[in-house]
C-alpha cells in the first residue's frame, strides 16, 4: 500500500493570493495525480505530475493557474494561483501502486476556502 | 472520453435496508472501479472489475459488472450507519488516472 501525506490539510485563503499544496508518498511512484473536488461534487483530474518533465494538464486546467512541481519520485506540489472563491475545493493527490496494479490511493486532501 | 453516470444521486435508507447504486456508460468500459468517500474524508478504493459479468463480494457489499461492460452496480445488504458516505464509480486508464462518475450519496437513518 501507499501512504500519502498532504499539507496543508485545511486553509482559509484571501482572494488573489496563491497557495502551494504538498504531497509526499512513502515510496517511489512514476506518476502522481492532482484532483479537485468542488463542494458536493465528484472528483475532477487537474493534471498528471511526471518526474523529470512538465505536468500534463486536463482540458480546462492550465499551468499558469495550477503550476505543478515534481522534483523526485516521492514528492509533488500543486499551486493554486490568484485564488478566487470558485477555487474553494478539496485538492487531492493520488497515486497508483497496488500490488495488484489496480488500487489507487488518495491523500487525505487539502480543504481550501477562499474568502 | 468515456463518461460514466450514476443513479441515484442521493439515497436515504433505514438502517437494515438494502441499498444499490448503478453506474452506466454509453460505451464499453475496459474496467470499472468503486470508491467510498466518508463525509469529511477522502476516496478509498474498494474494488476493480474487468470481466464481463463479473461479480465480486466484500462482506455485505456485492459488485457486478454487466455482460456488455457498459454498466455496473454496487449493492449493500442490511445497511449500517458505518456505510454512510458517497460511493463513486470510475474508470481507470492505463496510466492510473481515474475518470469518476458523479457519485451516489447514501444516508442511513438509525
Characterization of this structure:
The complex is a heterodimer of chains A (115) and B (110). By secondary structure, chain A is an all-beta fold. Chain A is 0% helix and 51% strand. Chain A has strands at 4-7, 10-13, 19-25, 31-37, 43-50, 56-57, 68-72, 75-80, 89-96, 104-106, 110-114. In chain A, strands 2, 4, 5, 6, 9, 10 and 11 form a 7-stranded mixed beta sheet that branches. In chain A, strands 1-3-8-7 form a 4-stranded antiparallel beta sheet, with no helix packed on it. With 110 residues, chain B is mainly β. Chain B contains no helices and 11 strands. In chain B, strands 2, 4, 5, 9, 10 and 11 form a 6-stranded mixed beta sheet that branches. Chain B has a 5-stranded antiparallel beta sheet with strand order 1-3-8-7-6, with no helix packed on it. The model of chain B has no long low-confidence stretch (mean pLDDT 95). Chain A binds chain B through residues 31, 33, 41-45, 48, 90, 92, 94-96, 98, 100, 102-109, and chain B through 31, 33, 41-45, 48, 88, 92, 95-103.
Secondary structure layout plus pairing:
The complex is a heterodimer of chains A (115) and B (110).
Chain A: E1 4-7, E2 10-13, E3 19-25, E4 31-37, E5 43-50, E6 56-57, E7 68-72, E8 75-80, E9 89-96, E10 104-106, E11 110-114
Parallel strand pairs in A: 2-11
Antiparallel strand pairs in A: 1-3, 3-8, 4-5, 4-9, 5-6, 7-8, 9-10, 9-11
Chain B: E1 4-7, E2 10-14, E3 19-25, E4 32-37, E5 44-49, E6 55-58, E7 61-65, E8 71-76, E9 85-92, E10 98-100, E11 104-109
Parallel strand pairs in B: 2-11
Antiparallel strand pairs in B: 1-3, 3-8, 4-5, 4-9, 6-7, 7-8, 9-10, 9-11
Amino acid at each position: 500500500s501507499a501512504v500519502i501525506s498532504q499539507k496543508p490539510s485545511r486553509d482559509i485563503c484571501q482572494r488573489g493570493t496563491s497557495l502551494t499544496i504538498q504531497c509526499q508518498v512513502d515510496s517511489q511512484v512514476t506518476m502522481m495525480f492532482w484532483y479537485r473536488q468542488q463542494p458536493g461534487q465528484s472528483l475532477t483530474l487537474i493534471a498528471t505530475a511526471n518526474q523529470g518533465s512538465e505536468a500534463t494538464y486536463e482540458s480546462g486546467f492550465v499551468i499558469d493557474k495550477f503550476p505543478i512541481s515534481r522534483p523526485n519520485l516521492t514528492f509533488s506540489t500543486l499551486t493554486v494561483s490568484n485564488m478566487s472563491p470558485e477555487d474553494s475545493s478539496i485538492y487531492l493527490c493520488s497515486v497508483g501502486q497496488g500490488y495488484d496494479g489496480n488500487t489507487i490511493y488518495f491523500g487525505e486532501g487539502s480543504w481550501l476556502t477562499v474568502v | 472520453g468515456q463518461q460514466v453516470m450514476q443513479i441515484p444521486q442521493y439515497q436515504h435508507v433505514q438502517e437494515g435496508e438494502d441499498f444499490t447504486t448503478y453506474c452506466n456508460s454509453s460505451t464499453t468500459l475496459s474496467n470499472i472501479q468503486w470508491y467510498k468517500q466518508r463525509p469529511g474524508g477522502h476516496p478509498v478504493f474498494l474494488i476493480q472489475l474487468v470481466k464481463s459479468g463479473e461479480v465480486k463480494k466484500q462482506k455485505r457489499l456485492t459488485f457486478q459488472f454487466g455482460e456488455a461492460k457498459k454498466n455496473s452496480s454496487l449493492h449493500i445488504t442490511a445497511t449500517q450507519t458505518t456505510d454512510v458516505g458517497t460511493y463513486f464509480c470510475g474508470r481507470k486508464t492505463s496510466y492510473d488516472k481515474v475518470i469518476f462518475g458523479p457519485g451516489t450519496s447514501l444516508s442511513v437513518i438509525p
